[in-house]
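Thread amino acids onto this structure.
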């Protein structure tokens, strides 16, 4: 998931995003079972081998990447896990204008790993490239990029094994009457989306869509909360005799109707992302996240499908692990989509139906930094003029998205809020002594300041085996100079 936008022309169920794999007619066969999105925008990522073991231990048989990270793909070798690799939007122009670049990308990021026993099944060309908030930036590059990647797969002799797709936000289709049966592609991009959909269908590839009921609550205070969940407590929506009791079914069937109206009644559908954040917003909490995710898993296990498309729904949960370096432009909740915390520990009870215990299996054999925290000095005066600048600086380079109304740390007092900010910055910088030297107001303690639902975290030891590095001493010194200049 990327940016959010209020979708004024869409029915309430169309604001969500999710990726579901449905084995349908001639569509490429898919491994049954639950999938998950593996994002890597983290200051302290788990080693790829640890993540793969986390996937295997929890019976997660499919994984969706947002790029083609070498370390992740190497770790997935011989795991049997079905993989979707991704081409980021910023590469679409290159892929669109150069068939050689497309061939090189496929050779490096697909063929090489296939030969190393990585079970790559899909290439995602872009990620929600037609999102309304992109203002058409990728309208003219997505289709030619898709064509060139498909041609490269054919040339490499792997097109029957690896299929292309384009993950779309649910805002690419709409309903003029607010019910699924009026579903159609969005008018302003109809020709573009039809062209891509026809190409995918002609090549036996699925339509991928992301659906997020949570976003409806986030952007519309009048949205009926119960309609976001699956336990049948919502007021039903009637569509010509067909009853909808939850947003997912209605959104999904709006797409089914749109495909049918445009001549693709049997096209396979992948729901690429579905999830609920656990923090960062008053509706983002463990209780709602657990209720939504367990409701979805229980519903999926039934295999009944939706009113318009019967049969099993396979989904990629969004997401596997929290990412503390994701952009918070859409909202503070963006860093809290994981079923697991950043360190691979479960946030809440969730039965995926894949383990003997019916519980999530945590990541193991982790090495944490020392049990110490950076907090506000007891002697610090709250009217010290350096405190506001220090907090602003710490939050800008740390992660304060758990602070605020309705969040897990929303009940902290002023001193605790300051301590939380200081500690976030301190932990993110690997507990460097200099990272807890906010001018005369901070100190290191070995007494855990966590309270109630608010966790003052301790980071795991940094992983340097891949492209993702934590902030080094050079970056820290530059940041410290910036802080001093701000305070002075």
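Threaded sequence (488 positions):
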């Amino acid at each position: 998931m990327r940016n959010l936008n209020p979708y004024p022309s869409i029915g309430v169920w169309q604001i969500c995003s999710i990726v579901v794999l449905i084995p349908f007619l001639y569509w490429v066969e898919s491994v049954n079972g639950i999938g998950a999105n593996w994002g890597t925008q983290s200051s302290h990522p788990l080693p790829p081998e640890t993540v793969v073991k986390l996937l295997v231990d929890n019976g997660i048989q499919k994984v969706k990447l947002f790029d083609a990270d070498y370390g992740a793909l190497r770790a997935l070798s011989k795991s049997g896990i079905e993989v979707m690799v991704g081409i980021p939007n910023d590469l679409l122009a290159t892929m669109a204008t150069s068939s050689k670049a497309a061939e090189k990308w496929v050779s490096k990021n697909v063929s090489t790993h296939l030969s190393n026993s990585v079970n790559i099944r899909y290439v995602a060309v872009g990620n929600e490239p037609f999102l309304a908030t992109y203002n058409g930036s990728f309208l003219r590059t997505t289709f030619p990029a898709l064509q060139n990647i498909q041609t490269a797969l054919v040339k490499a002799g792997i097109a029957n094994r690896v299929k292309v797709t384009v993950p779309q936000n649910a805002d690419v289709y709409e309903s003029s009457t607010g019910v699924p049966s009026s579903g159609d592609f969005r008018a302003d991009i109809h020709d573009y989306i039809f062209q891509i959909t026809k190409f995918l269908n002609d090549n036996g590839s699925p339509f991928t869509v992301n659906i997020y009921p949570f976003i409806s609550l986030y952007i519309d205070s009048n949205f009926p909360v119960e309609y976001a969940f699956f336990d049948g407590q919502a007021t039903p929506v009637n569509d010509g005799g067909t009853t909808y009791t939850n947003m997912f079914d209605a959104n999904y069937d709006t797409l089914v109707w749109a495909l049918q109206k445009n001549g693709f009644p049997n096209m396979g559908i992948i729901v690429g992302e579905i999830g609920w954040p656990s923090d960062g917003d008053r509706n983002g909490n463990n209780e709602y996240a657990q209720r939504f995710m367990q409701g979805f898993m229980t519903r999926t296990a039934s295999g009944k499908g939706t009113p318009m498309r019967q049969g099993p729904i396979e989904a990629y949960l969004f997401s596997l692990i929290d990412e503390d370096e994701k952009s918070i432009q859409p909202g503070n909740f963006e860093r809290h989509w994981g079923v697991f915390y950043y360190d691979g520990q479960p946030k809440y009870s969730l039965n995926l139906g894949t383990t003997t215990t019916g519980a999530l299996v945590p990541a193991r054999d982790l090495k944490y930094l020392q049990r110490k925290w950076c907090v506000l000095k007891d002697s610090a005066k709250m009217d010290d003029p350096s405190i506001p600048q220090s907090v602003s600086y710490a939050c800008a380079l740390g992660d304060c998205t758990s602070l605020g109304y309705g969040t897990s740390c929303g009940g902290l007092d002023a001193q605790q809020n300051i301590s939380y900010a200081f500690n976030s910055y301190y932990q993110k910088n690997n507990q460097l002594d200099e990272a807890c030297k906010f001018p005369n107001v901070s100190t290191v303690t070995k007494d855990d300041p966590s309270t109630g639902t608010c966790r003052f975290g301790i980071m795991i030891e940094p992983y340097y085996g891949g492209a993702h590095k934590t902030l080094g001493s050079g970056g820290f010194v530059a940041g410290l100079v910036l802080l001093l200049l701000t305070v002075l």
